[in-house]
Amino acid sequence: MFTPHAELDALLADFVRSARDILGGSYVGAYLQGSFALGAGDRHSDCDFVIATTTQPAGAAEAGLRALHDEIPTRAGSWAGELEGSYADVTSLRTVAGLGVPWLYCDHGHRVLIRDTHCNTPHTRWILRNRGITLDGPPVASLVDEVPPEALRAEMRAALPTVLTDVARWAPADVAWTQRYIVTTCCRILYTLHTAQVASKRAALEWALDALHPDWRPLLTQVAGDRELGWDPAQRPRPGSMALTRRFAAYARAWAV
Fold this sequence. Notes:
Layout: H1 6-23, E1 27-33, H2 34-37, E2 47-53, H3 59-71, E3 83-89, H4 90-94, E4 103-106, E5 114-116, H5 122-131, E6 133-136, H6 149-159, H7 163-168, H8 176-195, H9 201-211, H10 217-226, H11 241-256
Parallel strand pairs: 2-3
Antiparallel strand pairs: 1-2, 1-6, 3-4, 4-5
GO molecular function: transferase activity
Pfam families: AadA_C
Protein name: Adenylyltransferase AadA C-terminal domain-containing protein
């Protein structure tokens, strides 16, 4: 068992088998990162994967992967649209010199692969190296070097000032999920700045309840409690919660200085 969900495990086993067949001799191994690797994956989580290859997929292999990812979201079951991840060549995967190299990437719920840096950042690399789950292939730590603490902290320092504007580019402000996401993201950033490690959303909120000023406990408790509501585009933020969330983002910026 790779996850607590038998249906997801069956999907992953079939997915890895298909990707291995398509990639042939360039296939190295398949791994989980993200929420499931951090031990916090639940029914609201994406399932984040990285498939390691000797070289970036091209030609017939790339075409085969594109066909596979076009087909998977059409399958029955709640997890078919939740796979998200990249195909990482082992050269750029290994060292910090390869951070930011675009990989062939599938966003969850999407059917078209793009080349993107989404999975090739210090925090995703940290999860993979330290918490990654091996689905198939050699141990993931044999493929990924340690991420220097300052690389993680630098990424978080750069992200914190623009959390609100970055989220506004893709998440509607009048949806309750967005309010929770902003608060949780700020907590995860502060946790990494403090520890040079990466925590799940739930763990970051628990840390923040103890580490941050007590005035923020009602907001943090609300966000933690409402997580089970998941994504509902018709659900509006609690009255006053978005304004409070903006103030919390400003507090987080000041706390991090």
